[in-house]
Design the sequence.
């Protein structure tokens, strides 16, 4: 049984995908309430009429009352080892906060959607992929009404902060993109495509648990 997006709460709302997701949710006629959990007020979000900002310095302080009553919960929160500054900080952001957010929706009538990553594997020797895989395992073990996990490859778009390696990769890809077939599973995707896939999953998923791989995200018409 599908469920329309009546109300949504989003963490990672000021990131590349989070901002795009808020814009798309704001355009859904039936969506009455959108809450963006942010560490500091973001003036750019004030232009989105349905979006309310919930300011909380430490996302681990989110509680049951804060998230009660939402039809959908979107987790777009993620960072890089370089930006986090250490493996410990990366683990707190990418695993602990996301896991805590998901825990709050156990036994609730809420569809939980997470942006993971292509290559997520709890047994991986690559720390980034290992953490993503461990988070997926944790979420699969929870009693959630619906779960959608997206595994995008490199994300294309203008980030609020500089990521040198990703910026270089984007420029290289733009020069070579016409040589990359649509069936290539590692093909970069846009933030708009990822957000659109999340919205589609939120509105149409009927299975209790679904993984949307990078090829699925590539097929999203919006943002190409």
Sequence:
């Amino acid at each position: 049984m599908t469920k329309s997006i009546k109300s949504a709460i989003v963490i990672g709302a000021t990131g590349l995908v989070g901002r795009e997701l808020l814009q798309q949710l704001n355009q859904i006629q039936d969506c009455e309430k959108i809450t963006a959990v942010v560490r500091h007020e973001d003036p750019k979000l004030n232009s989105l009429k349905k979006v309310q900002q919930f300011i909380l310095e430490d996302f681990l302080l989110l509680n049951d009352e804060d998230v009660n009553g939402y039809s959908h919960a979107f987790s777009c929160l993620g960072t890089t080892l370089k930006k986090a500054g250490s493996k410990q900080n990366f683990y707190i952001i990418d695993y602990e906060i996301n896991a805590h957010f998901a825990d709050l929706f156990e036994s609730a009538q809420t569809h939980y959607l997470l942006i993971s990553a292509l290559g997520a594997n709890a047994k991986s020797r690559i720390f980034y992929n290992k953490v993503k895989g461990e988070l997926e395992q944790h979420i699969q073990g929870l009693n959630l009404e619906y779960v959608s996990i997206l595994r995008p490859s490199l994300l294309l778009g203008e980030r609020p902060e500089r990521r040198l390696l990703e910026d270089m990769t984007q420029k290289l890809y733009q020069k070579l993109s016409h040589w990359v077939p649509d069936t290539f599973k590692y093909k970069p995707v846009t933030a708009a495509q990822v957000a659109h896939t999340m919205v589609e999953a939120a509105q149409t998923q009927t299975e209790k648990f679904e993984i949307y791989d990078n090829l699925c995200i590539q097929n999203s018409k919006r943002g190409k």
